[in-house]
Every structure is written in C-alpha cells, then in structure tokens.
Amino acid sequence: MGKAVLFKRFLQHPTQVGALCPSSCALCRAMASEIGVENAGLVVELGPGTGVITRELVRRLPENGKLLAVELDELLCEHLKRTFPEVEICHDSASNLGGILKERGLPPVNAVVSGLPWAVFPESLQREILGALVENLSEGGYFATFAYLQGLMLPAGIRFRKLLNELFSEVTTSRVVWKNLPPALVYRCRK
C-alpha cells in the first residue's frame, strides 16, 4: 500500500484522508524530532495513514516505550496492523483519545504526533480533538503536527494556529521542510 492507495482513499474521503501522497522522509524526521520520543513511555499517533511517520516513531522509541496509533480509515488500519505488528493500532476517532486510553488502562501520553488534516476540519472538530489530546497529555508533554505552506494563511490555518496558542504553553515551528510535496512546517507544542 503506498501512493496509489492513499490517493484513492483521499478521493473517497477527502475530509478524513488529508494528503494526496505520503509525507517525505524529511518531514517524518522533523515530526519525530525535538519532542522527546527517545525517552517516552507512551507515544500516540493520530491519523497515521500509510505509516510513514509511524516508521520513524518506531525507530526512535526506546525499548520499553509503547506506540499507540489511532486511525479512522478501516482499510488503512488493516494495512498498519500488517505492517507494524509491534504497534498497537486502534480503529477509532482521535476525538475519543481519552476513552481509548482508559479502555486500555494506559497512563497520560508523553508525546502525540498527528498527521490529521486540520485545515479541512471545522473549528468544532479541531477543538474537540485538541481538547481530548491536551486532557490526556502529560504535563510537559509534546504535541507535533504539520501544516502545508499554502494553507498557513487560509482562514482555517490561521484559526488552527490561534487554537494551538490558546491550548499550549509553548508553540514553536520548524524550518520549512522543502523536501516534501507540498512543502510543510512542523508545529511543536508543549503542555
């Protein structure tokens, strides 16, 4: 499963699958860096898609660390289960993060990484998912997500950045990752 399947899923569900092609290696490295994955007990990935960022997270996770991936698309979920047997894959909505963690008896999360298409979500859904995320993130924990350059100045992109500033004590951005289609930057947010 690769570019062709992701493109097909994007055409079928553009508000769930937000990318035409998988993130580049450069963007995956930027997403997983500077957020403490190497020392984390529990990392959650929201919207792993085909698993390109998942692969980088697994590579960085400590031996005793756990990765939980939450994916809404059933076909992508099945692909992830086959590809990453060491990762706990959950077919559910990111807005149910609290319920997912409680059901599994898991502690607060050290880092959350998200490939969700924030720019296509209405404000209510952005708030719902971010609220669940913040509520279940450990104190000092990190949240990382990316935004495509062309979307930063659109109303949804501006609204999303304001929400991040409202919900997190610290929000920084990476340098532009030009080796991605389209170019993107990473938001790193600390609780």
Automatic annotation (TrEMBL):
Keywords: Methyltransferase, S-adenosyl-L-methionine, Transferase
Presence of keyword Flavoprotein: no
Gene3D superfamilies: Vaccinia Virus protein VP39
SMART domains: rADc
Ribosomal RNA adenine methylase transferase N-terminal domain boundaries: 27-162
GO molecular function, one term: RNA binding
Protein name: Phospholipid N-methyltransferase
Native species: Victivallis vadensis
